Amino acid sequence: DWTMGAYRTEAIAKIREQVGDKQVICGLSGGVDSSVAAVLIHEAIGDQLTCVFVDHGLLRQNEADEVVTMFRDNYNIPLIHADESDLFLGELEGVSDPETKRKIIGRLFIDVFQKYASQIDGAEFLAQGTLYPDVIESVSFSGGPSVTIKSHHNVGGLPEKMGLKLVEPLRELFKDEVRALGRELGLPASFIGRHPFPGPGLAIRCPGEITREKLDILRRADAVYIDQIRKHGLYDEIWQAFAAILPMRTVGVMGDGRTYDFALALRAVTSVDGMTADYYPFTHEFLGETSTRIINEVRGINRVFYDCTSKPPGTIELE
Ligand code: XMP
Question: What is the predicted ipTM?
Answer without folding.
Answer: 0.99
